[in-house]
Each structure stands twice: as structure tokens, then as C-alpha cells.
Specification:
Length: 392
């Protein structure tokens, strides 16, 4: 009796799609893992990611990552990925200051482009990237992965249904602590070393995207940026000036009449990775904290029993909630990496099935609009004036 059956993978009708990633650091590894997990969680997927090549400046480091995640090969010059006909998706996980040129070149080579956030280091670069992607007709997406956390998606759906009524206020913050200790070496403070992006560009962009995703377009901003520690030692012992902002606050006015605040910090002692927000509306309120990502706190005035009216701590782990894992059973918590898995699946599905990226995924247009808000906050901090956000 035959009880073992060989699977003929050659006869499977699921296509493969070639992936090329620029960057083998933290985010390159996160994306590599997401691509590998897609067939495990979404079955059958629109296409099975085929990890063709990964690129990085250090040959030893990028080779190690390529072997770890099962890439067919690796390179130290991103032009090889752009010119490789096997690659359909160019995934830019490089440092902020190398987002622009490689992404434009990939779009011009007719490759679909995914670029990590922030889209660029300036609004002009972001606009150039958007124009190149639109001109070539490729799919384009910016890596605002927190849109793909189930609790955040549920919040968006509740807002779309009118469950909390007219939105009045938004409060958002993204707090970390890497620079809180003045003696911490420059190399260990991500926002002050490397591309020296600062916290507003590096993590504040996530709060801005959350505000736009959940509330709507931002009309005006009044902001203030601050560098608290003027200089830091390098590991060599030499001191160097800190040129990046370490804290940022802003007051927002939305086009729909709502107001809001946002805050970003790299010196919030004790905060490891807190992205949190609260929204208040005429019929209810909601709040979310990334450090408790499986829950959404919801208060609705239409509760049926007055005696138990209050904030509900909603565990977003049941099958009827959005973006549920196809791997874990009901009631089992997902982790941070699932935001990226859901995000990369969304992009591949859009590419293969010719579906739109928006409104749930962030396009290069969304990335550009975030850059405009960032630059407006910086201008407000320099001039002391309220700044109006220019439209596309």
C-alpha cells in the first residue's frame, strides 16, 4: 500500500516573482523574512517570492545574509539588481540617503519599486521618485508598515463606518531612548550617525503617516525641533558634533477641521519603541500603543448598557478582524514582524493581480506628502511661523 506521495512542484500553477533587495541590515533582514513567510501564511499566494539577489556595501556581510535567507546570489553594486531581468520587484531597504537614485533607476527599468520609509531625505527627491514611478507605470509603495497591524486596520475601518463620528482631535507620538545618555557613542545612536537623519525623519514620519491614514490630509503645522546633546564621543574617543534633531513636537490642523499633536523623540529614557496615538470623535474615541499591538482601545457612546459604558480593550486576534494570520489559531497574539509580512503580501498581490496599492498601502504619493509635512515642521521650527502644507 502506497502511503507516501511525492509532490510535483513543477505542475503547480502558482507563479514565482523575482525579488531583489538593496540593503542587508536590520530592515533588509526583516523584508527577507517577510518574503519567505508569505507562502507559509497566505496559501495559495498570488505568487511565491523568489529571492534572486541582495545588495550591500560590505561583501562579507551581504554574503552572510544571502546565505542565511536563501538568495540565489548577492552583489555590492545595486545596478546589478536593477539590470537583472529575473527581478520584477526592487525593494530598497538601504539607508535614507540612498533611497532616491536606485529607486528611480529601478522604476525606469520597469521594475515595481518598494522603498522603505522615509521615502527620501527631501521632498524634492521624493517628488522625483514619485514622478519616475508614475511615468514608468510601475507599482510603487512606501514602507509605512504600521498600516498593516490588525488593530490599526480595524481603527481605520471603524472610522470609515462612522463609528466614532466626526473626528475632533488626534494625538500621536513615537518615542525611543537610544540617545538619552550623553556619553553613548555616536555609532550607537542611529539617528545621529550614518545618514544622520534625525528622529523627525526617522520615526516621526510614522506618526505623520498614521495621522494622514486615520484622520486625513494635514493643512497646517506649527513645529519645534530640538537637539539636546551638542556633541558625542565616537568609539575612537574623538568627540563629534550632533547635527541631527533629537526631539520634535508639532501642532497640526487637518483639512477636515480636526486638530492634533505629534511628537517624536530619541531621548525618551525607558521607551524602547513606543508608537502610540489617540483619536477623539463626536461618538467615540480610540487609542493604540505599539508596545501592546494586539489590542485596540475603543470607547463608543452608542453602547447598549449604560452601566458598563467605558473603554473596551479589544483583543484583535479573532478570525473576523482584519489582517488575521492564516497560521495562528484564534486568540494567539501576532508579533511586530507580521506588519511587514502583511505589507509585502499586499504589494505582491497588487503587482501580480494588478490591484491598487492605496488606500490601505502607502504609495510614493503618500511618502511625498509625509515629506512635505516634515519639511514644513522644520521650517516652522526655524521661523517660528505656522506653515501651510502645499498640495500636489
Amino acid at each position: 500500500m502506497k502511503d507516501f506521495y511525492e509532490i510535483d512542484y513543477q505542475k503547480m500553477k502558482i507563479p514565482k516573482i523575482g525579488i531583489g533587495i538593496l540593503g542587508y541590515g536590520f530592515m533588509g533582514k526583516v523584508h527577507s523574512n517577510a518574503y519567505r513567510q508569505i507562502p507559509h501564511i497566505f496559501w495559495p499566494p498570488p505568487a511565491i517570492p523568489s529571492l534572486i539577489g541582495i545588495c550591500g556595501r560590505d561583501k562579507v556581510g551581504v554574503e552572510d545574509t544571502a546565505k542565511r535567507y536563501g538568495y540565489k546570489g548577492f552583489c555590492t553594486d545595486w545596478h546589478y539588481l536593477v539590470n537583472d531581468p529575473r527581478i520584477s520587484i526592487f525593494d530598497n531597504c538601504g539607508p535614507d540617503n540612498v533611497h532616491c537614485d536606485p529607486s528611480i533607476a529601478a522604476a525606469e527599468a520597469a521594475k515595481h519599486v518598494f522603498c522603505e520609509k522615509p521615502l527620501a531625505v527631501s521632498a524634492q527627491d521624493a517628488k522625483n521618485m514619485l514622478n519616475a514611478a508614475k511615468k514608468s507605470g510601475v507599482k510603487h509603495m512606501c514602507g509605512y508598515n504600521y498600516r498593516f497591524i490588525p488593530a490599526v486596520r480595524l481603527a481605520r475601518e471603524l472610522i470609515e463606518k462612522g463609528a466614532i463620528g466626526e473626528i475632533f482631535q488626534f494625538r500621536g507620538r513615537y518615542l525611543q531612548e537610544p540617545g538619552h545618555e550623553p556619553s553613548e557613542p555616536m555609532e550607537n545612536v542611529w539617528y545621529a550617525s550614518g545618514a544622520r537623519s534625525g528622529v523627525l525623519l526617522g520615526i516621526g514620519c510614522h506618526v505623520i503617516d498614521m495621522a494622514r491614514f486615520l484622520v486625513g490630509e494635514i493643512k497646517t503645522v506649527s513645529g519645534f525641533n530640538k537637539t539636546f546633546i551638542a556633541s558625542r564621543p565616537r568609539k575612537s574617543g574623538k568627540c563629534e558634533e550632533v547635527k541631527a534633531d533629537e526631539g520634535s513636537v508639532a501642532i497640526l490642523e487637518f483639512e477636515n477641521g480636526a486638530i492634533g499633536t505629534l511628537e517624536s523623540s530619541g531621548v525618551s529614557t525607558g521607551r524602547k519603541n513606543q508608537l502610540a496615538w489617540e483619536i477623539n470623535g463626536s461618538k467615540g474615541s480610540m487609542s493604540f500603543d505599539l508596545e501592546d499591538l494586539n489590542h485596540l482601545h475603543v470607547y463608543l457612546t452608542d453602547a447598549s448598557v449604560d452601566e458598563v459604558m467605558g473603554f473596551s480593550n479589544v483583543s484583535v486576534t479573532e478570525p473576523y478582524y482584519p489582517l488575521q494570520s492564516g497560521l495562528l489559531p484564534p486568540g494567539h497574539n501576532i508579533g511586530w514582524e507580521y506588519g511587514h509580512i502583511n505589507e509585502m503580501f499586499h504589494f505582491i498581490d497588487a503587482v501580480v493581480s494588478d490591484k491598487p496599492i492605496s488606500p490601505y498601502g502607502a504609495t510614493f504619493e503618500d511618502g511625498y506628502m509625509v515629506q512635505l509635512v516634515i519639511e514644513a515642521i522644520k521650517e516652522s521650527s526655524r521661523t517660528g511661523r505656522r506653515i501651510e502644507i502645499e498640495s500636489l
